[in-house]
């Protein structure tokens, strides 16, 4: 077996999804890259046993490793989350918009913040769909949940985001 | 701007750049791969004991048997 060629195939087929998964789990892309590297290092070390599995089982194996690694990352992040919760009570002080680029960046920040505030299951599902470019069926197989559950979580997540952006677009509107 | 546009912009911002993904790939394949399976090893004194035992048997074999003496 050409180890590097086989590993390249697995890496290309799964890296975007795995990175999106960690982005959803840990709430940002930076630790996600480190965690993704850890997952694929294990893939590289267990390539012989993985190569014999069918493709869907390979992805299930990779996501099982990802889930296990994210548990440790979660514990590590726990203290940081408490600080972020405290800071969340501070009112956002955004500079006056000066250009379309500033507006776009400001809007992206609002979207990112709204995604970080989603319940974890919704955030992970949304990240896999949006950043991981996975279908509901693919997400269901990777997470081991029914496709209907995935669609429901996506629907809830999109509704929350729409509400957050609605407040941004029309800050005077009170419910 | 629609919600889908917002999500696409967010996804583009958080997605791992190809250059960084390629660097991670190179870092991983530069490692040695699977750890070699542990081969059971003999005790360090095995060869010394074996040689001493063998030598002793050789010497004994050159002596006449006690019953024949």
Detailed description of the structure:
The complex is a heterodimer of chains A (175) and B (69). Helices cover 79% and strands 0% of the residues of chain A. Chain A has helices at residues 3-26, 29-45, 47-51, 55-87, 100-116, 120-130, 136-143, 147-169. In chain A, α1 packs parallel to α4, α1 (3-26) packs across α6 (120-130) and α7 crosses α8 (147-169). Mean pLDDT of chain A is 83; it is low at 89-95. The radius of gyration of chain B is 35 Å and the shape is rod-shaped. Chain B contains three helices and no strands. The A-B interface holds A 3-4, 7-8, 11, 15-16, 19-20, 23, 28-29, 32-33, 36-37, 40-41, 44-48, 104, 107-108, 111-112, 115, 126-127, 130-131, 133, 158, 161-162, 165 and B 1, 3, 6-11, 13-16, 20-21, 24-25, 27-29, 31, 33-35.
What portion of the residues of chain B fall into strands of 2 or more residues?
Answer: under 5%
Question: In which range does the helix fraction of chain B lie?
Answer: 55-70%
- How far the N terminus sits from the C terminus of chain A, by CA atoms, comes to 62 Å
- Number of discrete helical segments of chain A: 8
Biggest interface, chains and residues, is: A-B, 38 and 23 residues
| Oligomeric assembly | heterodimer
Q: How would you sum up the major sheet of chain A?
A: none
**Total number of β-strand segments of chain A?**
0
Question: How do the helices and strands follow one another from N- to C-terminus of chain A?
Answer: HHHHHHHH
* Helix/sheet category of chain A: mainly alpha
The best one-word shape of chain B is rod-shaped
In short:
Chain A has 175 residues and is mostly helical. In chain A, 79% of the residues lie in helices and 0% in strands.
């Amino acid at each position: 077996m050409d180890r590097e060629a086989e590993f390249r195939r697995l890496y290309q087929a799964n890296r975007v999804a795995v990175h999106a998964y960690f982005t959803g789990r840990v709430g940002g892309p930076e630790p996600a890259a480190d965690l993704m590297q850890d997952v694929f290092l294990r893939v590289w070390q267990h390539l012989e046993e993985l190569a014999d599995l069918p493709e869907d089982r390979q992805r299930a194996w990779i996501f099982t490793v990802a889930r296990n690694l994210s548990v440790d990352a979660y514990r590590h992040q726990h203290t940081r989350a408490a600080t972020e919760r405290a800071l969340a009570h501070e009112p956002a002080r955004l500079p006056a918009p000066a250009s379309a680029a500033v507006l776009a960046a400001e809007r992206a920040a609002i979207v990112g913040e709204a995604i970080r505030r989603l319940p974890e299951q919704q955030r992970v599902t949304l990240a896999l769909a949006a950043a991981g470019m996975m279908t509901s069926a693919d997400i269901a197989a990777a997470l081991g949940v029914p496709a209907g559950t995935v669609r429901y979580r996506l629907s809830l997540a999109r509704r929350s985001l729409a509400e957050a952006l609605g407040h941004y677009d029309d800050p005077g509107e009170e419910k | 701007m629609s919600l889908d546009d917002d999500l696409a912009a967010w996804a583009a911002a958080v997605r791992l750049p190809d250059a960084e993904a390629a660097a991670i790939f190179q870092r991983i394949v530069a490692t040695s791969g699977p750890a070699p399976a542990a081969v059971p090893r003999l005790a360090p004194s095995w060869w010394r004991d074996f040689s001493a035992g063998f030598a002793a048997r050789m010497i004994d074999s050159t002596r006449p048997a006690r019953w024949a003496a």
